[in-house]
Amino acid sequence: MGFWGYVSNRHQQLLTDALQHASAVFQCMVIATVLGVVIGVVTYRSGWAAGLAIASTSSILTIPSLAMIGLLIPLVGLGVAPTVVTLTLYGLLPIVRNSIVGLRGVDPSLVDAAKGIGMSRITRLLRVELPLAWPPILTGIRVSTQMLMGIAAIAAYASGPGLGNEIFRGIASLGSANAINQVLAGTLGIVVLALLFDAAYVLIGRLTIPRGIRV
């Protein structure tokens, strides 16, 4: 059977796996974004704290994803739980780093002006600093999403959701008629999802970043 014939026969299952893959990445990115921005906000004013935050999240990326999931299985079991924990941890570094860089890059005179008109520290953060730091933060989110799209495929090792199941089934049955089709279908599906997510981020950037800041 040719590749397109395989896709046609399995389109329902492939669509289900693709939706599960996209949902897992999206939900983990939401969690990673909240945690990453909070860590950035808490640490960016202190050089040692910012360095510790970046070093800690960087060290997570040195752990092979398959090993990370394997270590989590005895703790949280199979399925969704190890997938969510792994993807969230791997997604932190670009967001934490870009949050710190973005917040440190805000013009101090703008912060002083906001302080001069009576804004509290929280108000300055929410209405001045974070909006100005949003472009690099969004870039960090885009980078994290692209990484997690590929890493999420490894979640199939722990019975996680997504297109990785198609890839693992193909690898496990190498030599059979549709093994290559399975691997190719899962891989191309992940690439397409990554492109769609990136296009969505470009649109979000155009809608949320003022033209002057984009320039």
If you had to describe this structure to a student in words, what would you say it looks like?
Helix 2 (11-43) crosses helix 6 (92-104), helix 8 (121-151) runs antiparallel to helix 10 (179-208) and helix 9 (164-172) packs antiparallel against helix 10. The protein is mainly alpha-helical. It has eleven helices and no strands. The longest helix has 33 residues, at 11-43. The N and C termini lie far apart (51 Å). The protein has helices at 3-9, 11-43, 47-61, 65-76, 80-90, 92-104, 108-116, 121-151, 164-172, 179-208, 211-214.
Q: How would you classify the helix and strand content by structural class?
A: mainly alpha
Strand content is under 5%
Per DSSP E runs of 2 or more residues, the count of β-strands stands at 0
Name the shape in a single word: elongated
Largest sheet descriptor: none
If you compute it from the alpha carbons, what radius of gyration comes out, rounded to the nearest whole angstrom? 20 Å
SSE succession: HHHHHHHHHHH
Residue stretches low in confidence (pLDDT < 50, at least 5 long) are none
Mean pLDDT: 89
| Residues in helix, % | over 70%
Span of the ends, CA to CA: 51 Å
